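User: Predict the complex with pyrazine-2-carboxylic acid.
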Amino acid sequence: MELNLKNGALIIVDVQNDFIPGGSLAVKEGDQVVPVINSLQHKFETVVATQDFHPANHGSFAANHPGKTPGEFIDLNGLTQILWPVHCVQGSRGAEFHKDLEIKNQITIFQKGMNPEVDSYSGFYDNARRGDTGLGDFLKEKGIRTVFVAGLALDYCVKFTALDAISLGFETYLIVDSTRAVNLQPIDGDLAIQQMESVGVKIIYSNELI
Ligand code: VGL
Ligand code: ZN
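Assistant: Here is the predicted structure with pyrazine-2-carboxylic acid placed in the model:
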């Protein structure tokens, strides 16, 4: 496949210590995406990274709902919210990017999840689609037409970032070997891929870009 990367951007989603084995919301093999993503960065003029960046009182943390445990569902200001372990708290080591992820100065970082009242999976909007990180306008101002999504986790933040990218009119690719799923249910990663494909996300492997 010939892919024109000229008007393309790489979106690196949430490659942070808490999503890596040893972290509080560890994704199995999450560390394995790092060398793949590093090998792709030089292909793109535009590289952005998202960073899950919660205050300690965030409403998605089970610990902030007495008697609740991770994996349970609650209503959070009108949205169904699955409860998570405390993760990616602002200023904590878990919120930092994996130490081997190459973060060069031309990478622009978009933080999300700062509002304790609503969770924020996508790199573009919060889950209520009210808060906007500015990523969509940033990409459009650069003339970006195609985005390539990589990172963690496939069945949450990667999926919702890709779905929003499609809804904003970007041609959207998932680099499938540059992501891993949380898989609360073992099938979740596969379902996420199906859902993305059903709205037009194209699935590619990193070696198709090299
Ligand atoms: C994520 C759950 C909660 C993710 C972030 O990056 O996929 N998942 N917060
Ligand atoms: Zn989070």
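Residues 13 and 155 are 12 Å apart (CA to CA).
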